[in-house]
Amino acid sequence: MNAIELKGIRKSFGASEVIHGVDLAVEEGKFYVFVGPSGCGKSTLLRMIAGLEDITGGDLLIDGKRCNDIEPARRGLAMVFQTYALYPHMSVEQNMSFGLRMTGTSKQETAERVAEAVRILQLEPLVKRKPAQLSGGQRQRVAIGRAIVRHPRAFLFDEPLSNLDAELRVQMRVEIAQLHERLGSTMIYVTHDQVEAMTMADRIVVLRDGRVEQHGEPLDLYNHPENRFVAGFIGSPK
Ligand code: ADP
Ligand code: MG
Question: Given CB 3.0 to 4.6 Å as the disulfide criterion, which of 47, 117, 141, 173 pairs with 148?
Answer without folding.
Answer: 117
